[in-house]
Design a protein that fits this description.
Length: 472
């Protein structure tokens, strides 16, 4: 019978966000009940989306009977964040919904040959030396190459005009990706010869770029990107260590620039230094202040679209084995919090050298443990309108992939589904950057275009991928 992970993990969110039933709800058909309340997470045809598929032949909660299905819908599964539905749905409506789910989706009508041919044109094909068919995304999503020849592509920043600015690592370049209708974006080199300029941010019409030891600013960038523009050096003093020394940079909702300084080591005590902290400053570099500490090496952060809280990834330490510790997703809703480095890792593991005399309970626990050595880098909250509602206002994390693990891990974009500020699920959104043991790409940063499509940078292949939703 049907897989009854069903009204569990993500469906709690689906019911919480679905519209209230109207007064004439008893007259709704079973299909309308399903489409109104369940399809948002489980797909219009029960194929699965954020939530699991309902057509798999496996039950996880009780016997495969209608009576059990009715009970689960009515009483919920509290440990899976699924609420009891009996207060909102009548017994008759619950019975209708149970019958509908138990029966499964209707078989699709046969398509005419012309329709089949048209559908075939949406199948990803090899493009610019990479087999796009090797990527896996949820049903209805499509991946393509937005720009190629973007050597060592790292952080992304999208201007209101649609130009995408890209930092690089060893290439030492900053790029502008200029959209062209029906074609890949044009790649324009803004600057070269810089020291690992991985961080890019837009503020007040200027492009800020974070190098290892300094921040530079290109004014009126949208008008000047094609003329090899001059830049000014922002007057701010930052460490220039090479180890975890590259600087990402983001503009916050408070009009300030946020910039982290990583630990200059795998593991060392940095509390009394300028390292392993996140700072913020005014646009001119003045007013530099510590915002968070105990952060080993964050290479990605974003601000929640509603609460405006700072969310950031953090890379766990090495040399404790393949499976320890976990990399982290953290929230810093205010200044002055300590996130544990070097005393505690993943919220639960005291460091064997520096953890003596300290307790993990002293520090802010991660909101999610992302896995050991997956190297989470950029993240974003998707606020576009192109993706279905279940994919909006959730967190997307680019796991760059392990470099020293016996069996590789990471190499994918993860979807972290939220209920408020609590994590409901952590699932793969884009996989296929690792095929067997062959690396074909390493995702770094994620951004959203004005049309609601998503961009993902890849510093391994020097590409920017674009994800669109073409389902119904």
């Amino acid at each position: 019978m049907h897989k009854f992970a069903l009204l569990a993990a993500a469906i709690g969110m689906a019911f919480a966000t679905s519209p209230a039933l109207s007064a004439d709800a008893p007259r709704l058909t079973a299909e309308k009940l399903y489409q109104q309340n369940c399809a948002i997470c489980h797909g219009a045809k029960m194929e699965g989306a954020v939530g699991p598929s309902l057509v798999d032949k496996e039950w996880l909660h009780g016997a495969p009977t209608k009576a059990n299905l009715v009970k689960l819908i009515a009483k919920g599964v509290p440990e899976k964040n699924m609420p009891a539905w009996s207060p909102a749905l009548s017994n008759a409506q619950i019975a209708l919904l149970a019958d509908y789910v138990a029966a499964g989706p209707k078989p699709a009508a046969a398509k005419p040959a012309a329709a089949k041919a048209a559908a075939a044109t949406t199948t990803p094909a090899p493009e610019d030396g990479i087999d796009l068919a090797g990527f896996k995304l949820p049903q209805g999503f499509r991946i393509s190459v937005y720009a190629d020849g973007v050597d060592a592509a790292r952080s992304l920043a999208v201007s209101p005009s649609g130009i995408v600015y890209v930092g690089s690592r060893k290439a030492g370049k900053v790029y502008a990706l200029v959209p062209r209708a029906g074609q890949q974006a044009e790649v324009v080199t803004i600057a070269s010869g810089l020291e690992n300029p991985i961080g890019v941010a837009l503020l007040n019409g200027s492009l800020y770029v974070g190098e290892i030891g300094r921040v530079i600013r290109f004014d009126n960038i949208d008008k000047n990107y094609a003329q090899q523009p001059k830049y000014d050096v922002v007057k701010v003093s930052l460490p220039n260590d090479k180890w975890h020394g590259e600087k990402i940079i983001k503009a916050g909702p408070d009009g300030k620039l946020y910039i982290p300084v990583g630990a200059p080591c795998n593991i060392c005590d940095t509390d009394d230094t300028q390292h392993a902290k996140i700072y913020r400053m005014n646009a001119d570099g003045s007013g530099l202040e510590e915002y968070a500490r105990g952060v080993r090496n964050t290479v990605g952060f974003a601000f929640h679209p509603t609460t405006k809280a700072l969310w950031f990834t953090d890379n766990g330490r090495d040399e404790l084995g393949d499976n320890t510790p976990s990399c982290e997703l953290n929230i810093a809703p205010k200044a002055g919090l300590h996130f544990g480095f070097p005393y505690c890792h993943g919220g639960v593991l005291p460091d064997p050298k520096f953890g003596a005399g300290r307790q993990c309970e002293e520090f802010v626990e991660p909101v999610a443990k992302l896995g050991p050595h997956v190297a989470p880098l950029g993240l974003t909250f998707y606020t576009g309108k192109q993706f279905p509602e279940a994919y909006r206002n959730n967190v997307y994390v680019a796991n760059h992939g392990s470099w020293n693990r016996t069996t590789k891990s990471g190499y994918e974009v993860r979807l972290i589904t939220l209920y408020g500020s609590k994590v409901v699920s952590d699932t793969a959104f884009i996989s296929g950057f690792l095929r067997g043991e062959q690396v074909v790409g390493r995702p770094v940063d994620i951004a959203t275009l004005a049309d609601g499509s998503m961009l993902v940078s890849d510093d391994f292949g020097g590409r920017i991928f674009r994800v669109t939703y073409e389902g119904k």
